[in-house]
Amino acid sequence: MGNNVRNASGKLGILMPGLGAVATTVIAGVASINKGLAQPIGSVSQLSRIRLGKRTEDRNPLIKDFVPLAKLEDIVFGGWDVYADNVYEAASVAKVLEQSQLDSVRDVLEGIKPMKAVFDRDFVKNLDGTHIKSESTRRELVEAVRQDIRDFKKNNDLDRIVIVWCGSTEKYMESGDAFSSLAKLEEAFDRNDQQIPPSMVYCYAALKEGVPYVNGAPNLTCDVPAIVELAHEEGVAIAGKDFKTGQTLMKTIVAPGLHARALGVEGWFSTNILGNRDGLVLDNPDNFKTKEVSKLSVLEEILNGEKNPELYGDLYHKIRINYYPPHGDNKESWDNIDIFGWLGYKMQIKINFLCRDSILAAPIVLDLALFIDLAQRADMHGVQEWLSFYLKAPQTARGLPAEHDIFKQLMKLQNTLRHIMGEDMITHLGLDYYQELIETIQ
Amino acid sequence: MGNNVRNASGKLGILMPGLGAVATTVIAGVASINKGLAQPIGSVSQLSRIRLGKRTEDRNPLIKDFVPLAKLEDIVFGGWDVYADNVYEAASVAKVLEQSQLDSVRDVLEGIKPMKAVFDRDFVKNLDGTHIKSESTRRELVEAVRQDIRDFKKNNDLDRIVIVWCGSTEKYMESGDAFSSLAKLEEAFDRNDQQIPPSMVYCYAALKEGVPYVNGAPNLTCDVPAIVELAHEEGVAIAGKDFKTGQTLMKTIVAPGLHARALGVEGWFSTNILGNRDGLVLDNPDNFKTKEVSKLSVLEEILNGEKNPELYGDLYHKIRINYYPPHGDNKESWDNIDIFGWLGYKMQIKINFLCRDSILAAPIVLDLALFIDLAQRADMHGVQEWLSFYLKAPQTARGLPAEHDIFKQLMKLQNTLRHIMGEDMITHLGLDYYQELIETIQ
Amino acid sequence: MGNNVRNASGKLGILMPGLGAVATTVIAGVASINKGLAQPIGSVSQLSRIRLGKRTEDRNPLIKDFVPLAKLEDIVFGGWDVYADNVYEAASVAKVLEQSQLDSVRDVLEGIKPMKAVFDRDFVKNLDGTHIKSESTRRELVEAVRQDIRDFKKNNDLDRIVIVWCGSTEKYMESGDAFSSLAKLEEAFDRNDQQIPPSMVYCYAALKEGVPYVNGAPNLTCDVPAIVELAHEEGVAIAGKDFKTGQTLMKTIVAPGLHARALGVEGWFSTNILGNRDGLVLDNPDNFKTKEVSKLSVLEEILNGEKNPELYGDLYHKIRINYYPPHGDNKESWDNIDIFGWLGYKMQIKINFLCRDSILAAPIVLDLALFIDLAQRADMHGVQEWLSFYLKAPQTARGLPAEHDIFKQLMKLQNTLRHIMGEDMITHLGLDYYQELIETIQ
Amino acid sequence: MGNNVRNASGKLGILMPGLGAVATTVIAGVASINKGLAQPIGSVSQLSRIRLGKRTEDRNPLIKDFVPLAKLEDIVFGGWDVYADNVYEAASVAKVLEQSQLDSVRDVLEGIKPMKAVFDRDFVKNLDGTHIKSESTRRELVEAVRQDIRDFKKNNDLDRIVIVWCGSTEKYMESGDAFSSLAKLEEAFDRNDQQIPPSMVYCYAALKEGVPYVNGAPNLTCDVPAIVELAHEEGVAIAGKDFKTGQTLMKTIVAPGLHARALGVEGWFSTNILGNRDGLVLDNPDNFKTKEVSKLSVLEEILNGEKNPELYGDLYHKIRINYYPPHGDNKESWDNIDIFGWLGYKMQIKINFLCRDSILAAPIVLDLALFIDLAQRADMHGVQEWLSFYLKAPQTARGLPAEHDIFKQLMKLQNTLRHIMGEDMITHLGLDYYQELIETIQ
């Protein structure tokens, strides 16, 4: 199948709705890396190796040398934001990176100015945008975004574009009738239905332009039947949702480990403190609910209390997020895990993660952008479940339960890349090594 | 291949050198489970399910219903110890299980009295055994142990026996010339070489009797060429070494997660406090060194600084074990992990595990005993790498680097079971689900 | 003044509104101690020594041998509760003490049955009492409680009684006009004002009977001018409010230490998980607010940002309590303290307290009962600020700021005892030792 | 007595043997503060207030406005070191302060060059000094140091000098016969006894010059009878030993709190990781022992198991220090405290302190220098126990047990200042407030 992937020639545009802490950290980072000032730590596409063939063959190329990805120097960034600050100004406010680092790529950052955003305060109550599109209907807003995309492509002489949502968590909603089919969604647009969230305006516009869309927030956006249908109709790749960083990242690492060893879990209490804009938005209960739903399902799927009632049948799982300004972007999480072992004896695991929210998110944005561009060039349309490795609430084929175990997700990612390039799957069986050994000895 | 596995008919003897905290917890636990008083939590063989076929087939039998394992009620326990206490007395001293739990199976436990141990204080300085075999040469000690095995089998009317070492960590040694081939080892026995550790006396005796041997301590024992050669010559399965519990368990869960995400690790500091006999033995530097070597290699292999110099090239890894009587068997570990992400920004993870050493080890002993018995019945001889899932320093085919990532180890275990029973390997690729979906839609 | 204290002759009744986890732990504990089965750990009155005179005199008697306190064997317990369970039953449900410990004093515990409680669900929404007084007005309820007190005294042949509130946290209220003077309060009773909380019914009744009253919850109860006035009018000692256990205890230990060293504090985040009835009640926002107000003031007073703006002017203090059933009475708190030192450089302190709520509260109940009985016998009427050592939100003379530093509170407690017994105050100056030394040398 | 203190007129020289991380942080800090670029956070002398009179008088001046201390702008720094780097270079290597902060006072720092040090590698094995005095006998070295002191005073036109040891921990020694009296010490110098540690050379020289000496390391130095005798003979103030920072600071905050509440302590395990030069020196067992002895006594004195056997009779106390380069000067400590309460029920406290070693030590150096200069001007000679607030192993009058409780130490410090200035002692009795209240009400 490797032969069928089109090459990554020309320039790739990465457009991000929401040029806040995460997006500016991506942009400043790639600029620094391109100047040779820093390394793309945390980026699997850039730094991870993939094993090919048998252990003894010792073939472990970097992923970027194995599959045809866009080069970092071929990326052009842009985006939309509700504030008019250029990327240098926005990054300085976000205080994720040191000022001296921002200054070293100041010229690049100052050149990137946000386009006016699609904004409806009803969806994000704790923010108050000032750099907003003036179109009055959802349909008109779609057209405005489509025009933005076309202009960006033309002005920057791009070969391809992908969009990665880096904006806020919108208020909680459920997938209603209006989103149950493409036809229904079109009707909703026709009557300017205010239920359509801003994020869906971007997504709809992207797909109509043939641009892949990745959803980094827990918003429903592309997780509804109407959008999936549109993606297939237009032949475009989509992926979502909610970047898996910090506490949920640790949870999908540790929970599979406990499950692997058949250790019981009686309770899991997770609390977070963070002081950035994300924390401020999530201080509103409507927005927190969207996040909470995304975070809660993780454990249920991995531990599966229905199938393992002796071990996980009584699991009590609670998640709290607290806005705590002293920490800024330095998110801190604390997990208390009440486990039990042999004969039911109790033990506890406590994990304190002093992380940096945007530092963990930035390489995910980069990888998702590069991989969904790859998928598009490999003619893989619709939901890209193999990117679930990066996502808190992975979108799957309808009816298929999501896989949250990060190690199975990694295997899926790697075997997908092997499959694309026509290499053998890895199963870790490895009995053949011993067969040979026995033959050697005998 | 499933058809080639002999059935687990008749009774299985499990003999353990070292009837201390771990072994008595296994025995009391199985007795409690057989009386319906407790659950075998932590035992993969008893409680874990294995996925067969595609996700949508929903075939997830318990492992014990999938492969032919000995039943818990068919197990007969026995062992050797340097103290003469019966298992009820030893378990009461160990204070791992509540006294009321021990009392509920007191009759079973009192019936199990240790055979006299092979002991050489030069190998375990902080212990002072009193229930010791009087034979004066290593060769005579081998014969005495072989006779013990034969007597135990006959007296208890057993079909099969396996041995699992649950004794102390011996002092550090390296595999010298005396252990480089079976012929050399025989010569060493002939000259009564005092370098031969007590554990190797048990192992040699076991293999000569056709009994599989599992090594639960970091002692070299069956990890030397001479013993591997003997295992193949006698057609016996062996596995080792060092039960993976507590801190190392957490390490082989968390490190693969960091590696998966290409997050850098600059330092990993691990400290332990424990107050049981194991802690006392490890308070001696010679014995600690054996343990330290076993624990250190884990990170090096998983993170592989040579292949990933930007991420793990400067890793500083330090491990400390502290004898702290107030905690008894309630081992507590604390890990500080200094990681770095995007552009090199630093973060920290702190893990505090309030575990119970023997509670974590007991189900491992059970699983290893049942699985190595399975391997023997499937005619899988020599090193059983697929059991590395349970072991801190897995023994592999000579020259083959060990796999420490617990999730790859689990995959190896599961795929080996699938292979034994003639089922398909699982690769987590899963593109077929989407192919079907696309066909459905189109 | 020591001569003026009346002796503790005869029996002392301790009545507790609320025979839940805390009260039953006190009762079972004193019964166990009286049988010689346990020690009154955590009780300053029973186990702490007090230094008298100079360091070199080496006079350090136990407090109970220094001041005339009631003896533990002279105590008779009783109380009221909204459930009819006797103390053995209630303690078994609370699961604070091991069942075997309760069984060893079962006869004593079964003999103590709660009197019917004064209950108004409007004040504690998450509870649903069934063992309730039927009187229909607040005034009638007062009379019923007074009759209970008189009956209890007569039936048990008591010399004296004290009351310690061990019931739930009531919903938040502020001290309104109805509580601004005794005359206003009498009017409120006359019109059966539903604002009068149940706790105030008990307190009013106690004072009318000449019985000292201690308030263990953050309820306003005796903290209003009307009740203080009544205490002076009746010549009765009162003290409050809110037992200082767990996280706030740690806070009033650590904060004075940071303040002592002039270390700045930028943020203090405190979160709790607990699963007992207290946790359930506090899951209701109205009740949590009462608790939160009580807990928040602690830091403000100790650190005093107004007087020390460079150090504490920007302090951000946040407290969370989470209901988490898996932990039961085993409350766990986690504090993250963001401090800064020399030139403003930042540091962090993280404290994880695995405590037991009722185990920490029980000796406080005992000490407060014994000390307020002492105060009453020493004719110290009205607010007993010297007992602030035990209380989260100490009641003081009107207009006098409360002292929250536990070490100053301890000094106040000890110097009050010295004062009562006519001993010298301790100032820790100690220059005299050196004067002597110099004279010796010269 | 306030009238008897001589004014702090003219310039004060602060000389420090050891211009490493701590000393350079003090110097750079005072330079920054004098330029208005930073605040002396952590300095009690500069930022703490002292309460005078009754609570209601509201008299709380800053200490520096209450007692006559040298002003920061009147301080001149100097010192000795085994490396020739000037203070700017040494501070840059130490990496405690940000480079931009050092650059802002670069001119000041570059002007301070170390004098050649007294060094004997036998006392600090892990260091290898290159900037060493060439004198061959201890007596000659004393004379060389005395000349340094006189030159420094003259060249900088100073009114007074104090010396604060900021050098390394020397190897463990006990106070032998050679140090038992001044006469014996003189004889030891006469025979050039190699037992005399370098630190004692500095101290002896200082006292001979009438210069107060503070010992910031756990070295015995001025803690021997010979030096105390010399201090009285010369009329000079001395204080020691070992700056109380980090873990021991927390210990002397928390332990008094547990003791105050009569909570039992069964075990206290303390471990540290640090990666600076101090950590390297302490990696040598001889030097660690000196530190360990200093750190261990703290708990024994505060908790006093002999006087409180039910509570602290079985205390198991263990301290570990681990050299861990990834953390540099960012020392991290972790304490596990096993406590027990009512009836013996067990609880745990875990404290994780992410501190900065030199940031905590720097203001202590400043305060000790300023306060011992004050003592000297107040004619307080010999051991200054009132400075024990800052010290891990306070020196006291012979035979007088040290007080380790930081809150009693603070009271001692404050009451000494009040005493010097003729103010009333504070006892926290406070009954008078209530007497007035009662009179008001009646």
From TrEMBL, chains A, B, C, D:
Membrane-crossing residue ranges in chain numbering: 12-33
Family annotation (SUPFAM superfamilies): Glyceraldehyde-3-phosphate dehydrogenase-like, C-terminal domain, NAD(P)-binding Rossmann-fold domains
What are the entry keywords?
Membrane, Transmembrane, Transmembrane helix
Any idea where the Myo-inositol-1-phosphate synthase GAPDH-like domain is? 246-358
- Write down the InterPro entries for this protein, in alphabetical order: Myo-inos-1-P_Synthase, Myo-inos-1-P_Synthase_GAPDH, NAD(P)-bd_dom_sf
Presence of keyword Glycosyltransferase: no
- Keyword Transmembrane helix found: yes
Name the coiled-coil region(s): none
Report the Pfam families cross-referenced here: Inos-1-P_synth, NAD_binding_5
| Family statement | Belongs to the myo-inositol 1-phosphate synthase family.
Protein name per the record: Inositol-3-phosphate synthase
What is the organism of origin for this protein? Answer: Sphingobacterium tabacisoli
